[in-house]
UniProtKB/TrEMBL annotation:
MF term (GO), any: histone binding
Domain annotation CID: ranges: 496-631
Domain of life of the native organism: Eukaryota
GO CC terms, sorted: chromosome, telomeric region; nucleus
Name of protein: Histone acetyltransferase type B catalytic subunit
Organism annotation: Verticillium dahliae (Verticillium wilt)
Region (Disordered) residue spans: 632-672, 733-766
Record field: compositional bias (Basic and acidic residues): 739-753
Recorded catalytic activity of this chain's protein: L-lysyl-[protein] + acetyl-CoA = N(6)-acetyl-L-lysyl-[protein] + CoA + H(+)
Length: 766
């Protein structure tokens, strides 16, 4: 069988997306780009099997975004049994409307028919001018058929550019997944178009699709205080009412700017327009964002801070330096370091979500710290802080710690108090230096010097009273992953190390037997590989504090992490596992009875790591000697089938059987943990059975047979001679002219006298 790699193509590279316009000579591509993610469509490996020279061209009409898919390849794999090439068309049909699979002729004819009278759906919300043209933001409801049609066409950009993004305009589980969803009235869509006349053809539509954002309305319950007493004649309202007439909490769900228009501050303009719209809407009580990434947070921070600087009351927000800090750490920390009543009124007035507002206040109060205590890398020599300045800085740290603790209280609550304080101090260090670290990016420095691409040139003046570190961070990094160059989005962001550790620890705690959960945790570890030492320490901590099942899952996850690390040539993870392999094995399968059931898990993973070259054979052999001793503990503790049958049970009936004296008791496992382990082992065994038939390279099958074959012995020689004689007899029976001498001649053997025998058909007379 041919090598699998020969027939596999990277889906990110194979899928090319383009925007096209009509010309006299045919369609002309005005922009082309590749997706950032394809695992939601083609699987976690982002590989497409069965093609050589594969190209998937997904073209869009630049204005109405009618799609067309064209799939070409130099060679296609011929199916062998159940092994067959990926049905790309069938896969994409789940993500694109039927019109995307029409003929090339129909698509080109449709694009040619679009005239300058064509306008985007929805009502004109606002417009703004930039150096490359006029941009229009249009607003409408998902109940509008034209808007729903447009969203179904472009919604594939969500999983392609937003990690973990999902669809809103379709329900794959419904009988008709493309119909308007039942909650469409709750969705508001903001469309962003560039309006620029085509220079060489005035008859064409001047509109080009740039991006869009979707907003969902939640009902916002406002409890009256004090509760109003109903009048005697009050009755329940009758009839239907519009959801848009109720107070709501609005949630920004999707935010997409196509790559050709990223890096120009267009995303910040769209966000600013959406924020101002709901700020002026009396029924909108709060504007939240659904699971924002780090880059979007940067854009949001600058936009929100810029707005808050225009609110007069916000200037009154400052650290209350009159508060005395108790020297005894066991005493309660003062709560009103910043006026809580003022903050609550401001937050409700500005309609900013509580967590986001707390971060903004933290940045604002940080900007008020004296230069002697402002967080920095310490390159410039600072003056020694006065007693009052040190006191102000200490209060600010307490204020920031309160926010970090509230944000992670579920995880921190499980940690002992001394370790909790240590973790909070570590987190606070990253909170201080996060804005400073981002300015080290060369790309950011170049953007700082280039005023022509300032993302907020129509916003109020820069926040000159912010420290330089925050100014650098927010004057540049003002876009989500959809408003930055895809290849530079990760390089210009720096996540909070404490938050990264907490999220990774949570992923490790919730691992199960599925490959998807392990690959997800491994992908997260590689995403933040700059923090590899911190994440490796998380693995060790979770191994030492988790239950038996979680330790087994983490052991399997380590293999996935090492595989990805080798694939991306980031060998630090592999080196650290090699260094701590003894500690890892002791944690997964300790000497006591609690780890005996994990001996097989450790042995299986070590064998895989040895086969892949991650761990040397000598290390595995040494560990195996230790595992053999610990494996017997499983029998002694009652964790495996008895080795000596019923001898351990004596003559007692099963209901009265008790362990023999001196036999260690099994670890205390509740029923839920036992059932969970049974299910997870069943899932793993299922994968192992599937793996039996996998042939990864040319020699894999013969290697497997060689390992399964016993050593050559006397019985094998006897059997070989018997088979040989039986074969000679069979051959002789096929032709009556054969004699033993003829057989010797046939096989080129010498007779006992040293003469060569004569072969059949060599002129011998009969």
């Amino acid at each position: 069988m041919a090598e699998e790699g020969e027939w596999s193509a990277n889906a990110n590279d194979a899928l090319n997306i383009g925007l096209v316009r009509p010309t006299d000579a045919g369609l002309k591509a005005i922009a082309t780009f590749n997706p950032r993610f394809t695992y939601p469509i083609f699987g976690n490996e982002e590989q497409i099997f069965g093609y050589k020279g594969l190209k998937i061209n997904l073209r869009y009409s630049a204005n109405d975004m009618r799609p067309h898919v064209q799939i070409t390849s130099k060679e296609k794999f011929k199916a062998i049994g159940d092994t067959e090439p990926t049905d790309i068309r069938a896969v994409l049909q789940e993500h694109l409307p039927t019109i995307a699979f029409s003929s090339v002729k129909d698509f080109e004819a449709s694009v040619q028919k679009t005239t300058k009278e064509w306008k985007p759906p929805g009502e004109l919300h606002t417009s703004f001018e930039t150096q490359d043209g006029t941009y229009e933001i249009r607003k409408g409801s998902l109940t509008d058929p034209a808007i729903h049609q447009l969203i179904t066409r472009v919604e594939i950009f969500v999983p392609l550019f937003i990690e973990g993004g999902s669809y809103i305009a379709r329900d794959p589980q419904a009988a008709d997944p493309w119909k308007v969803p039942e909650d469409a009235a709750r969705w508001t869509v903001f469309l962003l178009y560039r309006k620029q006349p085509v220079a060489d053809d005035a008859a064409q539509s001047p509109y080009t699709f740039v991006g869009y954002s979707t907003i969902y309305r939640f009902f916002y319950f406002q409890a009256p205080s004090p509760p109003a007493s109903p009048a005697a004649d009050w009755e329940l309202p009758k009839g239907d009412f519009e959801i848009t007439d109720l107070p709501c909490r609005t949630r920004l769900s999707q935010f997409v700017i196509l790559p050709p228009f990223q890096g120009k501050g267009i995303g910040a303009r769209l966000y600013k327009s959406i924020f101002e719209h709901y700020l002026a809407n009396p029924l909108a009580m709060e504007l939240t964002v659904e699971d924002p990434n780090e880059a979007f947070d940067d854009m949001r921070d600058l936009s929100d801070l810029t707005y808050l600087k225009t609110v007069p009351e916000f200037a009154q927000v400052r650290i209350n330096t009159d508060i005395n800090v108790p020297d005894d750490s066991s005493k309660a920390v003062p709560r009103d370091i910043v006026d809580s009543d003022l903050l609550d009124k401001l937050r409700r007035k500005t309609k900013i979500a509580p967590r986001q507002f707390a971060r903004l206040v933290e940045m604002h109060t940080m900007s008020q710290l004296p230069a002697s205590v402002q967080p920095s890398f310490g390159v410039d020599k600072k003056a020694k802080p006065t007693r009052a300045e040190a006191h102000q800085y200490r209060l600010w740290r307490m204020f920031a710690k309160q926010r970090v603790y509230r944000q992670n209280k579920d995880i921190l609550g499980q940690i002992d108090l001394p370790e909790r304080r240590e973790k909070l101090n570590e987190a606070l260090g990253s909170v201080e230096l996060d804005p400073v670290g981002i300015i080290e990016s060369p790309r950011l420095r170049s953007l700082v010097r280039d005023d022509s691409i300032s993302p907020l040139h129509d916003f109020p003046p820069p926040l000159i009273d912010l420290p330089a570190s925050i100014q650098f961070r927010h004057s540049i990094n003002t876009s989500s992953s959809t408003d930055l160059e895809p290849e530079s989005a990760e390089s210009v962001t720096m996540a909070d190390p404490f938050e990264v550790r907490m999220r990774f620890s949570s992923q490790l705690q919730h691992l199960n037997a599925t490959v998807v959960s392990h690959q997800k945790a491994a992908a997260y570890a590689m995403k933040y590989k700059d923090m590899d030492e911190d994440l490796h320490s998380c693995i060790l901590e979770q191994l030492e504090r988790s239950n038996m099942n979680t330790r087994a899952n983490i052991m399997f996850c380590i293999e996935h992490i090492m595989d990805m690390a080798k694939k991306e040539n980031h060998l630090n993870y592999i080196t650290m596992v090699q260094r701590d392999i003894i500690r890892i094995v002791d944690a997964v399968a300790p000497e006591n009875a609690s780890g005996a059931a994990n001996v097989r898990v450790v042995r299986l993973v070590l064998q895989c790591l040895e086969n892949k070259g991650h761990i040397e054979n000598q290390v595995v052999v040494q560990i195996e000697e230790v595992l053999k001793d610990r494996e017997t503990t499983a029998h002694d503790a009652g964790l495996s089938s008895p080795v000596q049958g019923d001898q351990d049970l004596g003559d007692m009936p099963p209901s009265q059987t008790i362990p023999k004296p001196g036999r260690p008791s099994a670890p205390g496992l509740d029923k839920r943990q036992i059932e969970q382990r049974i299910e997870e082992d069943r899932e793993r065994h299922k994968r192992l059975r599937e793996d039996i038939w996998a042939i990864r390279d040319r020699d894999a099958e013969i290697d497997r047979l060689w390992e399964e074959t016993s050593d050559l012995g006397e019985d094998d020689h006897t059997m070989g001679r018997e088979e040989f004689l039986a074969r000679e007899a069979a051959v002789a029976q096929q032709c009556p002219h054969y004699t033993p001498r003829d057989l010797d001649d046939l096989y080129g053997r010498k007779d006992h006298n040293g003469a060569s025998g004569r072969g059949h058909g060599n002129g011998t007379s009969h």
